[in-house]
Amino acid sequence: MQTVAAVTMVRDDAFFLKAWLRHYGEMFGRENCYVINHGRGAEVAELAAGCNIIGIPGDPHKNFDIKRWGLLNNLVGGLRRYYRHVIVGDVDELVIRDPQAGGTLLDLLEDAPEGRVLTPLGLEVIHRIDLEEDVVADHIIGPRRHVRPAPHYSKPCIIAAPVKIARGGHFTQADKIFAPDDLYLMHLKFCDFAAYVGVMDHRNAVTAAVNAGVKEASIGRHWFAEARGEDRAVFEAFADLEMVDGFDMQPLRRKMRRTFKPRGDTGFYHFDRPDYGTQYVLPERFVGVI
Fold it and tell me: Are strands 83-88 and 2-10 parallel, antiparallel or unpaired?
């Protein structure tokens, strides 16, 4: 069996798709990357050339997330018959391995036992617009070095077991947690102010076409204009996060493991996801990883 496949669904998010393709396409080979092209966009098809592109209709629908994760669940289940591990997530989420470990993400997965679901620690890359003036070009980490803990994005996203994934990818049916010390999920939504504005303009247009409010639609609240806030104020607020010296993520992982438990009677499992209100500077060794 092949070691790993990477799966995402995308609609017009060229900035993040380029990063996704650069990261997974170069590491795993584009032939092991699966891109669901929602709306059959020409730019997505062009950028993802060489990947396995699955074009689907782009009609707006108020239950977008339910439909999306139904498709992703079934695709992951099928691919598991051909790959030992399947990484699944949004196009602005990238799993990385700490360079300090001395090997790549692919190296880790080649040695990882089957039958498990791996949960990287979620970190959100934030653009400190008061400090970071460089434009993001070939790589994101370098021009951007600040991160904040994001437990909401500590997702069980590396699948090597027959489990169902909850809508949004935040929970699975796996009843044990495996959170390797050197795995991170980097959420890139706030990594660049200009890119953020463009993406949010597009997502607001998509939800407007649905003609349903936040409470009526099964779409992430962050896609709606009413939940957006003022863009520059969102980024300026990053400066107010408490700066933590060093880069010790072990206390955060210990909390994940310690609080892991059933999510009520849903059949899914989860852990506590506190709002830390802190930020860190990524060590030099992470520059160029994505």
Answer: parallel
Kindly state the helix (H) or strand (E) to which residue 3 belongs, with its residue range.
strand 2-10
CA distance 136 to 134: 7
Give tens-digit pLDDT for 79-98: 999 999 999 999 999 999 99
Enumerate helices (H) and strands (E) in the chain, giving the number of each.
8, 14
Choose among 257, 218, 249, 274: nearest CA to 67: 218
Longest dimension (CA), the chain: 50
| % of the chain surpassing 90 pLDDT | 82
DSSP assignment string, 44-91: HHHHTTTSEEEEE-----TTHHHHHHHHHHHHHHHHTTTEEEEEE--T
Cβ–Cβ contacts within 10 Å for residue 228, how many? 15
- pTM for the model: 0.89
Contact 28, 5 (CB under 8 A): yes
Average pLDDT, the chain: 91
